[in-house]
Design a protein that fits this description.
Layout lengths: L7 E7 L2 E5 L12 H9 L3 E6 L5 E6 L22 H9 L13 H12 L4 E4 L6 H12 L3 E5 L6 H5 L1 E6 L3 E6 L1 H6 L5 E5 L6 H11 L5 E3 L8 E3 L5 E6 L13 H4 L3 E4 L5 H11 L5 H19 L11 H12 L4 H8 L13 H10 L13 H12 L1
Parallel strand pairs: 5-12, 5-13, 6-9, 9-12
Antiparallel strand pairs: 1-2, 1-3, 3-4, 7-8, 10-11
Helix pairs in contact: 2-3, 9-10, 10-11, 11-12
Length: 391
Amino acid sequence: MNAHKSIIVTIEKQRSRLVALDNSGKDWTSEIYFNTRKSAYNSNMALERTIGKNNKVFWRRVSLDLFDIPVIPITDESIEAPEGHKEIVDFIHGSYSLKPKGLAMAELKWKYLVRSAVRGKNILMTGPAGCGKTMAAKSLVHALDRPDFYFNLGATQDPRSTLIGNTHFDNETGTYFSKALFVKAISTPNAIILLDELSRAHPDAWNILMTVLDEGQRYLRLDEADGSETINVAEGVTFVATANIGNEYTSTRVMDKALMDRFIIVEMDVLDAEEEHGLLKYMFPHINDELLQPVAEIAHLTRIESLSESGKITSGVSTRTSVEVSGLLFDGFKLAHAAEVCIYPQYSNDGGVESERTYIKQLVQKYISDGSSDDLFNEDEIQRSNEGTSS
């Protein structure tokens, strides 16, 4: 049986007194009001000691079954770890080699992500748009080599249809119920289920997920009617959700605190200029390094500006956008043209010379020269690639 660390007392009638005793036989009667003891006794329930605000002690009624849960004694004897624990620990701490090089994620956070998945936690990936949340979640799936299912909750118009299913009519068989793919997903042992854009989901989706994600429940009811089928979440299923948290994101909702409490949170880091540059160099090795550096610096400076109290823009250039700009450079576009189609449309033109778009244009202009397209590709790198191919 599991241990219970709280103080639980049962109420016994001794002659004319209602006595409160814990598992060790200690008498708590003097600390509990008579009416509280009487109410618990008449309801055939136990009482649990709880510490509230300002360290105020109060007693609440709980199931009598909790009184029978023993407290684990503290001993000096060493207890062996469960079988297989060392293998799990070795896998977690050796897992950084499984992280794709194209995913910019600190070693500690990657290991925490892997550990949480191995232990069957509900994981919520947070961070600004374009920082790699979904990529990290998908990388986790590949690293663990488990069955996986993907659901974009931000694009779901009918949560009940997506998560539970629909009733259909057929001329031959009549009315029948078709279960959603999500039902199959939660019924698949050891599956990893990606819940993308959870912060943009309809509140009905959150309500449906409440029991599914709750550690003490883990089930999905197909209908609210009495006797309706209940689907239990299979053993080893891990849920990984992504969320953009902040007022700057369109269509995001303030997530319910009860829903948030069902997750452990892995926050994606926003890259600095050096890290962004390193990522772009890895993804586009054939582009001259001097052309990638401005892209990384522009992204970094916009992020700093957006976080400033008196910032002239509300959001920075995402890593997703800097990768797209670099892709255009690879395909022969100048930085000025890449910024015109990738960066400027993300910023408002309202306010004329004081607008966000004006600020971005002025920032980008500092990195644009007439020779920005010269020596576009790293000739030494291409030559080495060609030599490797010919050999």
